[in-house]
Amino acid sequence: MVELLSYKKFYDEPLKKDEPVSEEITKDCYTVFACRHKFCREVCPVYQELRNESYTSYGFHAALLSVSRGIESLGNMKETITYCLECGACELRCPNTLFGGDFYKRRTTTVDLVRKIRRDLIAENEKPNNWGEVEKKIDQYKKYYNSSPEEIRQWAKDLEIPTTGDTILFVDYFTAFQETVTVRTAAQILMKAGVKFGVIERPGLTLGELYETNFDEWLAHAKETIEALKSAGAKTVIVVNPHEYVYLTREYPKYMGSLPFNVIFITEYVAKLIENKKIKLTTEVDIKATYHDPCALNKFSGIWESPRKIIESIPGLEYTDEDPVSQWYNCCGNGIASFKELHPELSYRIGTSRLRKAADLGVQYLLLGCPHCKDQLSEVQTKSKINVEPIHLLEIVAKAMGLEV
Amino acid sequence: MTSILKYGTIDDKILEELRAIVGDENVFTEPHHRAIRASVPAPFPLHKWSEHTPDVVVLPGSTQEVSEVLKISNKYKIPVVPRGGATGLADGAMPLRKGIILDIKRMCEILEIDEVDRTVTVQPGINMQELNRVLEKLGLWFPDDPASYPVAVVGGRVGTGGWSLVGAFGGHVPDLVLSMEVVLPTGDIIRVGNGGGRKIRKSSVGYRLKDLFIGHQGTLGVVTEITLDVFPRPEVEFPAFFGYNSFEHAYENAFKMTTSGLRTLGAVVIFDEEKVEYLRRDDEAYIPQPKSIKSIIATVMYGTEAEVEGAKKRLFEIAEKDGAIYLGEELSEGDWASRHDRYALPLHGRRRSDWQVVPMTWHCEDAAINHSQLPYVRKRWHEIASRYIEQYDGVFDDWGMFMYSNPPFRPWGDYLTEIDIGINELALDEETWEAWVNMKREIAEVVIEVEGSISACHGGTREGDVEVCVRQELKDGQFELMKKIKKMLDPNNIMNPGKYMLDEAYQEG
Lengths: 405, 509
Ligand SMILES: Cc1cc2nc3c(=O)[nH]c(=O)nc-3n(C[C@H](O)[C@H](O)[C@H](O)COP(=O)(O)OP(=O)(O)OC[C@H]3O[C@@H](n4cnc5c(N)ncnc54)[C@H](O)[C@@H]3O)c2cc1C
Known about the structure:
The complex is a heterodimer.
Chain A: H1 23-33, H2 39-42, H3 45-50, H4 57-68, H5 89-93, H6 95-98, H7 101-104, H8 110-123, H9 131-145, H10 149-152, E1 167-170, H11 173-177, H12 180-192, H13 208-211, H14 215-231, E2 236-239, H15 242-256, E3 262-265, H16 266-275, E4 288-291, H17 295-301, H18 305-312, E5 318-320, H19 339-342, H20 344-360, E6 365-368, H21 371-384, E7 389-392, H22 393-400
Parallel strand pairs in A: 1-2, 2-3, 4-5, 4-6, 6-7
Helix pairs in contact in A: 1-4, 12-22, 15-17, 16-18, 20-21
Chain B: E1 2-3, H1 12-22, E2 27-28, H2 31-35, H3 49-52, E3 56-58, H4 63-76, E4 80-83, E5 100-103, E6 110-114, E7 119-122, H5 128-135, E8 140-141, H6 154-160, H7 167-170, H8 173-176, E9 177-183, E10 189-193, H9 209-212, E11 222-229, E12 231-232, E13 236-244, H10 247-258, E14 265-271, H11 273-279, E15 295-303, H12 305-321, E16 325-326, H13 329-337, E17 350-351, E18 356-357, E19 361-364, E20 367-370, H14 374-391, E21 396-405, E22 414-423, H15 430-449, H16 466-473, H17 478-489, E23 507-508
Parallel strand pairs in B: 3-5, 4-5
Antiparallel strand pairs in B: 1-23, 2-3, 6-7, 7-11, 8-12, 9-10, 9-11, 13-15, 13-16, 14-15, 14-21, 17-18, 19-22, 20-22, 21-22
The site of flavin-adenine dinucleotide has 36 residues of chain B, from strand 4, helix 6 and strand 11.
């Protein structure tokens, strides 16, 4: 895995509407403004739809710099700052990251900045249009969190998974209550491969929407999750949802130091099992497919090899690859946090562009590595009728293993 | 002299009219939308940001909308500044008189690909990478390859009359535009080409008006549709980099390469000693060891396999005979591949006294200089830079020089000659800004002294350059004629006013 952690502590200090922007933030914004080459713009999936450079990494940093110079007031940015999927492409494409990141131990951190500005504006009661939808979602997830243990484990009905163990499969509320097929499939694959694992009873909320509105509450939930994993005896935590993988590997350690267990993404784990012949892929899966790199895996975590290894080991499958760097330009349109609630139509447009790209390759299936991508692209496919079916790659693995899921 | 023109102010009524044309969602008045469109990547006077912040941002979606916006601007006398990729390095898209920023990036369709007559017709907001991604599927290639390849757009390439890294093989923007649709400052829509042909490459009919609308920096209208020449995708692209123990050594060898008669040569680029030093500031550049390599020549060849195979041998002979060291396939290919990506890095700025990192932006000089004058110009430019750096350490930095073969379809005779200067804009105030403008002027004056041209690709519209361009480079009647043309086409001076000092066309006394 690539070391992508870049924690700018000074982002923790809230920006206030009518107070000066700190010197550190000003300098940080200047480092992007100083470039102005705008590679960040072209790679941005939002820009590719709207062609408005206000909504790019350059745009956000330059806008905040204009606030620091007294040209703009922070409150005016409240809509602009919502036009970001938090997909991370711009950060990677930024020459400051790409060419100077390792050397100077400093990279561009647009996603952190966007999240921070959103959160600081909410704290100042500057809420963007459609904000009610985000609040509704947070409430919904709090309901999930307060459900009974049976409801939380409904997805695993009949599977008889213990609540403790050296190895824990981490299941967040999105996969436990909404996109349940993915975790259920993951669990069945692991079981068939003979892996002994548990699932904790009640994790804290990992929700991105909460992270970018109420940091303290989000962090309290994060601590609860880590405690629960610890007391379940976890030495290894397998994660199925890439968004959660990013929290566990990149965000939590910022505030809690390194965690007392290993965190591994499901495709890395499954690829190993295939390599070690613990998983046998015996049934032909006769399909033509390509693969969509989820932002949280490819752009944030540098994980793009293991999904491809898995796909290439599926018998019968005819695979057309789009390389992971070209895929920096792609996103399913869901975004990492509140984007879809705030911009449902734009989210749909980005999704249709993604599906069309896959259709242009002449494939029947778009393989996915993320339950959010699956949720989003399935919805887009139903609405748009674009002739490519989104499916999680674990479902294909299960088929190749001869599993009924 | 006083201006005989007064600009109108943009009030609610005008805003309403603009919204009616392009839609509410494409008109922006909040300060940050305007402020982020005040600058381009050329050194920007951050301490005077508001002076360059436009009054309103308009994102048109069609030729008709552009025409309607210009009609309104002409009626109410509102300045209009076209903004393409906003990568121009001569401040072309930086407003000098506020007004409307006409950001044309929404107009990004490919309208037609003609595989028989070998042309592509596009809207102005598409960039070369987007265009070539589509063309390559058909075995076609639009060879305009600036270092800003993925970010500059065709409209801006036309607006600046851009230069391509591989121009010695594929020509430059003025050579590749066959015809264009242009909206004049009055809102009238015209088509210019080679004669009246849309896809014709050579004609003797009429004046060469097409050229008038290339490189005018948005002062004469807005290009809304462009028909471009496309090439067959070359079978082979072969980059080769060579190392030398001094600039002089490389310079002599470059002469032999550029005059070798090899038709496959797409570029010959000299990196001087200061540039190699600069590139060694971090550990990721493809910069060769040993340290005895002080200067570099990068070359690239295009053609069929047979052509390049033969030409390669000849090129290596020329290099080896002069004692150049071939830097190997990995370095050559790696560095060539990253030619669009790693131009200037803000964190490479240094304060000389203690080698402290100071984030800086980038000034990129781009004069056209004859081969015979390169050593002299190089010496003078570094001297000028050193003098200012000594006085303002931590504000300015010298990032070395590149010299690129400049002519279209042949590599000999003159070079796009670039000195890169780092500038810490956060530290700019009246005094340091004036120092910068003076440095710029001194650099430009050296160009006039050796009978070069101040800009091979960006344009002569920067503060510091512009007076030297207008008063010295264009003094023998050209500027006088430019003013007459400007006034004739743009009676109210609405198109990018202030650029090239063309305000003078409207002054009396
Ligand atoms: C990293 C980097 C590398 C570069 N390398 C090169 C290089 O190798 N070769 C080179 O030539 N340049 C280079 N440049 C400079 C710049 O990319 C070019 O000048 C380019 O042509 C500008 O295009 P743009 O779309 O960014 O135009 P902008 O900067 O937006 O505009 C440039 C000028 O054209 C006018 N304009 C824009 N659109 C229109 C239109 N539709 N109609 C009329 N006028 C219009 C603007 O008003 C302005 O005066 C580089 C810049 C950067 C940042």
